[in-house]
Every structure is written in structure tokens, then in C-alpha cells.
Amino acid sequence: MRQGLTWFNIASLLLGFLFLYLPIALLIIYSFNESRLVTVWAGFSTKWYAEMLQNQGLLNAGWVTLKVAFTSSCFATVLGTMAGLIMSRFGSFHGRTLFSGMIYAPLVMPEVITGLSLLLMFVAVALDRGFVTVTLAHITFSMCYVAVVVQSRLAGFDRSIEEAAMDLGCPPGRTFFQITLPIIAPAVVAGWLLSFTLSLDDLVIASFTTGPGATTLPMKIYSQVRLGVTPEINAVCTILVGLVATGVLTASLITRRQEMRREAEERQAIANS
Amino acid sequence: MSSSPPPAAPATAPQAAVESPEVARQGTQKLLKYLVIAVPYLWLLAFFLAPFLIVLKISLVEVRVAMPPYSELITFVEDGWIAFHGSLENYLWLWDDPLYINSYLSSLKIAATSTVLTLLVGYPIAYGMARAPRRWRFALLMLVILPFWTSFLIRVYAWIGILKKEGLLNLALTHLGLISEPLTILNTDIAVYIGIVYSYLPFMVLPLYANLEKMDLSLLEAAADLGCRPIKAFWVVTVPLSMTGIVAGCFLVFIPAVGEFVIPDLLGGSETLMIGKTLWTEFFNNRDWPVSSAVAVILLLVLIIPIVLFQRQQQRSAEAEA
User: Fold this and answer.
1) Which site from A91, B172, B208, B316 is most exposed, i.e. has the minimal number of CB atoms within 10 Å?
2) Interface membership of A235 toward B (CB under 8 Å)
3) Residue B252 lies in a domain
4) Distance between CA A154 and CA A157 in Å, rounded?
5) pLDDT exceeding 90 applies to what percent of chain A?
6) Is residue B317 part of a domain?
7) Is the pLDDT of residue A242 over 80?
8) Chain A contact for B136, CB < 8 A?
9) Are residues B273 and B129 both part of a single domain?
10) Do residue A108 and residue B293 have CB atoms under 8 angstroms apart?
11) pLDDT score, position A3
């Protein structure tokens, strides 16, 4: 049996990644195009970025989106971490099946259903639509993603460390903050980032649940995209892609470094004992 | 919590005195546990389950020109009686108008076809990643995950510039001399397929990779030793072993794709029927909240079987991991 990559493997990886990255690369390249025509290259220019910065509507939408994303991801991380902990550490309790159903279902629920149902509820309880309602909606679907990420991290590490702490008389609350939380920290950070980008990205649920004065950036982009491709939108998209890519890459490199250090320390500890 | 019963007899007193703080602490811990459960539980009940019940309720009432734009389901009449005004009229309306049935069927068809296409594109990528040298795998994984974090809307938008008549694909193909007339791809079902495959590819590749990476390669060696050719070994060993990954990936693509709105709206044409788009139009353009609710209820019923199957599978694999 031959180990390693065959030509078929290499070709499928190359073509696969070309397919994944070429559209985004083209979008970024054409945001620096001098010409308004998207497919005609007329030289390098940053004028669309300057134009974008003049567009007050776009900037307001960007600010609203950042506020919604920050608030909702913080709440979603706390709620989602609790939910992940419940699913992997709390054993059975009444209504556990319903609980896990409510955690997994939003992950695959069509956005139009989530958006419509939340909106109808906000109307039914006479909550004014705007910043608060979008944020509540985003917390709800993001916390499920956080729960799944945290749960899989908890499933992957040795429960005996927590048990040892509790056997030595450490109360569960303190065990969580001193033992469990530091270990699952990378998953919690990843969950926060995921919530942040999910919120930054959401068009459908925001369109249903928002109200006057709380137009988000995706909604603004969507309404302009329907009129056609413009270099200005390419510029906005490039900045968003750049921000997200930098954030995700930094976070994953930091967690990977921590992970490797932890593994090295564990090996060291085993070697010393 | 702190009120423990007084010792019944002097003989048991020392023991009870030792036990009571322990019992009290266990009581506090139990309370804490239920408190931790209660917060996310109540949140999901209020913001996930309750909204569905409201959709169900509104699907039974009539549209009305007012705010909120629907009639009451239950009204209180005198003497403590309540009157029930629900009807299945909205559902009959969905049944009578072929637009809705066609939208459901066409959504299922488009989602199923794109799921198969995504599997065909995703499997070789996941397979290549799982066979790559260990030191590359982190980077390859990052390369798959990164587009998943990038805005969905932006990725769909990027394809408009490529697929349109005077777009980059037609430009490239004309330059290469492969075509003389520009192809019409944007605003057709083909563009929708491309959009779904592209947007949902990471959802397919990640579970497949997680599964293929864990595979025991000695099984393939055993197959080869017994005279099995590599291609046959792939079909009789690798594919059956990666079935959980295939199933998870297909669910993760199929279920959200059925209700997809952004892709058919931006890449599809006016004749591309998808139920997410129909619901959107019904709600935002026709402002018929009861009919949109009925559309949502039926869509949920259509998806409930795959969603339940998906949850079961997730729970099973989570338990297997633990």
C-alpha cells in the first residue's frame, strides 16, 4: 500500500482550493479597478475605497452591524457555553431531549423560517423592531453554534481532572472557573468569533427582525447588489473579507500555539514523573 | 437550606452535625445546577420554540389591513366564553395555487441535486486532505474553514461578476476560443447549482475530512494484500467506512439548501422557483403574514424528517465521542 499523495489527490486539492478561492480573489482584484465596468481592467486605483468612505448610509449600516455583532456574540458565548456544559456534563434531566433538539435544530433551520417566526413573536409581544430585536435574534441562533463548539471540546478532554478537583473539595462553580474554563478557553474564543462573524454576515434574519434605523451592512449590500455589480461594493466586501480573515487566522494560530505548548508541557510532565 | 431537622436522639447527634452542612451544600449545588440549566433552556423556549407556536397560530387566521396585519385567533366574548376563529383556509390556498406546490417540489429537486454535486466535489478534496502529510493538514483545514467564515452574501455576490453575460467566465472562454457566443449562465438554475455547491462546500468537506482522517489505513493494506485493486478497495472499504461523514455532510447541505433565499434570489432567474424566495415575496411584497406562516409551517413539516434524522445522528456521534 502506497502512502502519501497520489496525483489524483494533488489535482483534487488544487482544483478544489482554486474553486474556493478564485471568486473571492477576483472580487478583491476588481475592487482596485479604475474602471466602473467590472470586467474591464483599466489600471490600479483605490478611488472606490475613497468613495465608499464618503457613503454615509454605508458607514452607518457598518456601525450598526458592528454593535449588533459585538453585543450578540458576547451574550451568545455565555449562553452557548452554559448550554454546551449542560449537554456534556450534566447527565440526564427532565426535558434533555427537547433541550438538545433546540440546540441542534437552529443549525440547519432555514433562515427564512427562523426570521419569520422571530418577527411574528416580536410583533405578538409588541416589542418595537430595531437594534434590540436583531440582537435577540442573533443571540438565539449564535448560541447554538457556540454550544456545539464547546460541547465537542468538552467531549475531547479528560473528565478526571475536574473530578480530581471536586474530590479534593472544590465546589462545582469554582471547578468550572479554575479548571474547566481555562481548558475550554480556545473553544469559547472560537465560539465568540463564530458568533461575531455569523452576525456580521446575516442578511435574512436581520431583514425580518430589524426596524427603521437599524439597517445592517448585509441588508445595505444586498439592496445595492440587486441593482448590479459595482466596484464600490467590491471595496466594502474586500474590507469585510480582510477583517474576518485576519481575525480568524490570528485566533486559530494563537489557539494552535497554545495547544502545542500544552501538549509539550504534558509530555514534559509525563517524562519527568 | 440551612434549616436541618434537630437531632432526634442524643446518640445520633454527632453524626447529624457532621452531615447537615454536607446536605445543605449538596442542596445548594443542586439549585445551582438547575439554575445553570434554566437560563439557556428558558431562552431557547422563549426565542426558538414559542415563535414557532406563534407562526402556527398566525397560519390559521386571516390577513387584515391593520397592525398587526392579521385577525385574532381567539377572542373573549361575554360571560367568560371564548370564541375560536381559526380556519385552514391558508393551507387550502397553498394547495389550490400551483405556485406553492411547484416551489416546494422545485426546492427539493434543486437541493437534492446540489447536495449530490457538493458530495462529488467535496469528497475528493476531503480525501486528499486526509491523505496529505500530517504537517500540512492544519493549513489545509484552515483553507477550507476560511471561506466558511467569509460572508455568505459576499461569496454569492462574487459569482455574479463571473457568471454574467459579459462576465469573467465568458470573457475567459471567448479568449481561449472555446466559445464564440457568450453563454447565459447567470439567472438560470445552473447558476443556482454553482452557488449552492460553492457556498455549502465547507459543510460537506469538514465532516467528511473528520471521518476520513480517523480511518485505519491498515484496512486498505489488508484489502491490497488480499488482491483488491485500489479503486475497488475505495468502493468496498473507504466509502462504507466514511458513511457517517457522508450522511452528516449531506444533511448539512440539503436541509438549509431547501429553504435557501439569497442564492436563488441573486443567481437564479425569474423562473427559478424556490420556497424560501416564495416565502420572502409573500411576506415582504404581498405583506400576507398568514399565508407566509402557512408556507413556513409546511416547509417545516417537509424538513422535519431530515432534521430529526440529523439530530439523532449528531447525538449519537456526540455520545460516541464522549
Assistant:
1) A91
2) no
3) yes
4) 6
5) 34
6) yes
7) yes
8) no
9) yes
10) no
11) 54
Q: Is A249 inside any structural domain?
A: no
pLDDT at B13: 45
Q: Are residues B178 and B285 in the same domain?
A: yes
CATH code at B232? 1.10.3720.10
Report for B9-13, B40-44, B221-225: range of highest mean pLDDT = B40-44
Tell me how many residue pairs between chain A and chain B have CB atoms under 8 A apart.
256
Nearest to B70 by CA among B81, B83, B56, B59: B59
A146 part of a folded domain:
yes
Percent over 90 (pLDDT), chain B: 38
Residue carrying the nine cell digits 443571540: A139
Hey, is the C-beta of A27 within 8 angstroms of any chain B C-beta? yes
Residue A186 is placed in which grid cell?
Answer: 480556545
Q: Pick A70 or A184 by higher pLDDT.
A: A70
Q: What is the CATH number of the domain that holds A116?
A: 1.10.3720.10
Number of domains comprising chain B = 2
Domains: count for chain A: 1
Where in the sequence is the domain holding A137, given as residue range(s)?
A: 57-217
ipTM over 0.90: no
* Cα angle: B243, vertex B245, B248; to 5 degrees: 105
Q: What is the pLDDT of residue B16?
A: 47
pLDDT at B12: 44
CA A221 to chain centre: 19
